[in-house]
Specification:
The chain has 335 residues and is an alpha/beta fold. Helix content is 51%, strand content 14%. It has one domain: P-loop containing nucleotide triphosphate hydrolases (Rossmann fold), CATH 3.40.50.300.
Amino acid sequence: MTSSDSSPETRSSLLQRELLVVTGKGGVGKTTIAAAIGLLAARSGLRTIVVEVGDHSRMAELFEVPACEPGVETVLADTLSCITIDPDRVLLEWVQQLGGRIPGRVLASSGTFQYFAAAAPGAKELFGMVKIWELTQGRRWQRRAAGYDLVVLDAPATGHALGMLRSPQTFGAIARVGPVASQAHHVRDLLTDPERSAYVAVAMGTEMAVTETIELQEGLHSHLGRGLAAVVVNGLLPRRFSAEEMRRIAQLNGGRSQNGGSGRPHGGGAAAADVRMAAAHAATTVHERARFQHNQVARLRRRDFEVVGIPFVWASHLDLNALGEIAGHLARKLR
């Protein structure tokens, strides 16, 4: 199956959805891209929140704000916030919403209920998806809390992300009726509606990352009837040299000189030759790596994916300026 099977995914701007799910192979820069999408949406005037899964918030580090407490919505910039999912806190909020404040506390602290929540397949994942759904609502569980125009989910790596996205279906098969089943249905509606949600894969220009992206597309289609709206290929190196320039560089890299012997001149000339050879070797290595990366991008495009390339950031660490540059690259494709 190719992404052309899911053409409705790209009919309108991704930023017009209620939910954007960002996932891909581990280590490809998903959090960076999720942060850049959040920044782009906020700069476009949308009230936006980036949701992280886990105990540690990378968003606070990227935006240089104090670390946020799990489960607490934290302001990163104008109209941009972040939150980390705390399943236990979500559970308490949810059951309070279902049964009133006192019954909710009693139920949440019940050993039987806690055992069920821990043992039921997909329960913890569903709690996270329920919170994500709640963030998209104009009417929130807490009366004073405002809804968001866009929720960006910095999802786990591909396999775990698919498990999380399948959780409404998995849990709904256990609880077929009642408020739990109803909530699972609401979440599934959000995930399966192409007008309300979209899926973005992040990859690097490696064979393994591209293969996992293709598998993600197949998993989304199999479990949700959805496809990828875009694939962001992170850390692309530029192709700087023509074929003729590479031929000349290869001659330098040979290291042979006209004075015979070992091919290396004596004295200061030897040092200069070493520098030329090192520079030629570095240029050749970078050129070959860039060529391989762009071949992997071509592999994605042959499957009709909407591919967005993000240049490699030449910096010791990622700061807000670099994040803004990445957001600018995304803007040309995602708006």
